[in-house]
Design a protein that fits this description.
- The protein has about 260 residues and is an alpha/beta fold.
- The chain is built from twelve helices and eight strands.
- Strands 1-2-3-4-5-6-7-8 form an eight-stranded parallel barrel, surrounded by four helices.
- Helix 8 runs parallel beside helix 9.
- The longest helix is centred in the last third of the chain and has 15 residues.
- The structure holds cytidine-5'-monophosphate.
């Protein structure tokens, strides 16, 4: 997806490899706007808008502020990931996916654990749309460790549950997944280069872990095959969110490889 013109000025001086890498990093960093109301979201976006291209709107903000909260993001040229993690019967999820697609978002989520029929219905709901958002199936939440996974009756490690759900998703025609950094390498091997792998649970070295369990640094996650990184609190709760985002972008840029010309 192209970055907006104001982040890519036409009269910029000759660009170095570092600038190219930073631009590439900017296309792959998604800031989670986990805030309680539209005013807090607007304040964060004001501070980040010259640094970040993508914003994720999740349950907290969407439930409080409704679809209107997307409009200022979209009108400023930002890309929006609507992370509502639908999980319901196929007919209901298909309707919700159609409604979400109509809001102009570029990515949306359903829970893979809703099963193959639900995933197929979600995928079918996007068929025929002129510019559909990427459908992502959430595998196992990054906040769940083995004890949490076992507690819901699954007698296997989170990684093997993630792999099982991803194989099921691929068979249902879904090519985008959300998983933790710990499984991204296995999923990249499963999906090949076509897979869109969106990775939360990102913590720069020294950042507070909070409730996340299966984590990695931005550079590690990219090197293991992530397409996009989702970062919330390490940016949004930093004293200077733009500076925290820039530091993460620099770390991402170092991990981005461009194919060398032959
Ligand atoms: O603040 P933090 O960086 O932990 O935020 C991570 C974001 O990614 C949150 O918005 C959370 O809802 C989301 N997420 C996650 N694990 C998943 C899917 C989404 O943490 N499996």
């Amino acid at each position: 997806m192209p970055i907006p013109e104001r982040l890519n000025p036409p009269f910029a001086p000759a660009r170095s490899r570092t600038a190219d890498r930073l631009d590439e990093a900017r296309k792959r960093l998604i800031v989670a706007l986990d805030v309680p109301d539209a005013a807090s979201a607007a304040a964060l976006v004001d501070r980040l808008e010259n640094t970040c291209q993508w914003f994720k709107v999740g349950l907290e903000l969407f439930v409080a502020a409704g679809p209107a909260v997307l409009e200022p993001l979209l009108s400023r040229g930002h890309s929006v990931f609507l992370d509502l993690k639908f999980n319901d019967i196929p007919n209901t999820v298909a309707g919700a996916v159609r409604s979400a697609a109509g809001l102009g978002v570029r990515m949306l989520t359903v829970h893979a654990s809703g099963g193959p029929a639900m995933l197929a219905a979600a995928r079918a709901a996007l068929e025929g749309l002129p510019d559909p958002p990427e459908l992502l199936a959430v595998t196992v939440l990054t906040s769940m460790d083995a004890a949490q996974v076992n507690a819901i009756g699954l007698k296997r490690e989170p990684a093997s549950q993630v792999e099982l759900l991803a194989k099921m998703g691929l068979e249902a025609g879904v090519h985008g997944f959300v998983c933790s950094p710990q499984e991204v390498g296995r999923l990249r091997a499963l999906t090949g280069q076509e897979g869109v792998l969106v990775i939360p649970g990102i913590r720069p070295a020294g950042a507070a872990v909070g409730d996340q369990k299966r984590i990695a640094t931005p550079a590690e996650a990219l090197r293991m095959g992530a397409s996009y990184l989702v970062v919330g609190r390490p940016i949004t709760q930093a004293p200077d969110p733009a500076e925290a985002a820039e530091a993460i972008l620099r770390e991402m840029a170092e991990a981005i490889e461009f194919p060398t010309a032959k």
